[in-house]
Amino acid sequence: MDSLPIFIRAHADVQLFSWDRQIEAATRFGVTLAQVEEIALERGILPARYQRNRQAISVSDQLTMFRSSVCVVGCGGLGCYVIEELARLGVGTIVVIDPDVFEEHNLNRQLFSTPANLGTAKVNAAASRIGEINPAVTLIPVQAAFSLENGASLLDGCQIVVDALDSIKVRLELAAVCTSKSIPLVHGAIAGWFGHVATQFPGDPTLKTIYQAWESGNGVEQHLGNPSFTPALVASLEVAEVCKILLGQGTPLRGRQLIIDLFSMEIQAVTLHNNDEEQE
User: Fold this and answer.
1) Can you give the residue ranges of every domain in the chain?
2) Residue 237 and residue 247: Cα distance in Å, rounded?
3) Is pLDDT above 60 for 114?
4) What does the DSSP assignment read for 174-220?
5) CATH superfamily assigned to domain 68-271
6) 3-state secondary structure of 35
7) Are 206 and 272 in contact (CB under 8 A)?
8) Number of helices and strands in the chain (H, E)
9) What's the whole-number mean pLDDT along residues 140-161?
10) pLDDT tens per residue across span 52-77
11) Which residue, of 33, 195, 230, 249, has the fewest CB within 10 Å?
């Protein structure tokens, strides 16, 4: 009987391995789709679903992403888009943390929210959706509220964390836990026509600087609301930051905050802090 690597090589077409062949290989050799994908990538053969990535992301880069683990905290307006884009990009393991279920007011913007999913745990809907669009990706649903008490254990094994929360208090707690565990944090926030993105690297005071004037209460999104387009854009910028950090390429938003005004169609980057200065 042929070995799995021989099967993959024999059935690759111009270094591309089709989805039908991935399913056939998994069934024939009694392995998971994730195992098939990893073995193909190790041998320089690209699963055909990623062929439109390869002008920007090499096969070796694709393997790096497949072996990566990203945690998304929050599975609402931002989080749903972040999760789907990470899965389509080919990030191999995605941990999703959120305590809530879908409610009717989520239907205007939250990608996994449908009338049929009302009352369903958001993390379970995320797992179902990702299982449909990229079954080679492992999504780990955690139906829990993030806090200082459980945060360190929830982030174990994650290389990067994405902030998709709607509470400034919890965002600051997430930033503190990421600092304690030396994990980069990609932060995004949305409100109405507006949003911002920044990346906090270990040792940087990024979120403390952004929210230094905050004392209590929720963010402005509670009264500005969120139309469908704002989370889609901000989430995409967050995923681009994750991709750059995982691959060690490009220029991340370290020490900078990207401020987005979709009403006036203006985007500007402002300096938050000097990356080289000694942090407390």
Assistant:
1) 4-55, 68-271
2) 16
3) yes
4) HHHHHHHTT--EEEEEEETTEEEEEEEPTT--HHHHHTTT--SS--T
5) NAD(P)-binding Rossmann-like Domain (3.40.50.720)
6) helix
7) yes
8) 11, 10
9) 97
10) 999 999 999 999 999 999 999 999 99
11) 249
